[in-house]
Amino acid sequence: MKNDRIIKGICAGIVGGIAATAMKTWWESKHPVRSEDTETPPVLLANRIKKSVMQVPLKTENKPLVGDSIHWAFGTSTGALYGALAASSPAISSGLGLPFSLGFYALTHGSTIPMMGLEPYPVNVRMDYAWNEFAGHLLYGLTLDIVRRATLEIID
Q: Which letter does DSSP use for residue 81 in this model?
């Protein structure tokens, strides 16, 4: 049944998304994507939303938890989406997730996040920061697909 395949794809994508987010988080701990004193896009976005709704900024002590929560939720839900897409159209998962991760990078740090003013465009940051962000997305996509496939082997 196609619905069963998609549900399994979503579940496997969630597991893969968690693993991929962990991999990208580890990568960025070793290979920074911005200076330590620069707010992350999730924190900046959450701060904007809180200010517009409640007219007060995030408390400094809440920023790490808020940023991490958004980062993990986004990475995991992207994994779920990838799992559903791969189940619906197996060609999506060609290249072990690397083509997907290129598109994911292009749609996030390569365009939307800078357009929202949450970080500069990759050409406007230090080359090592830009490379580290790009490489982190490649690792995210590769990890997502490998773990998704392994999870499907277990649950099928």
A: H
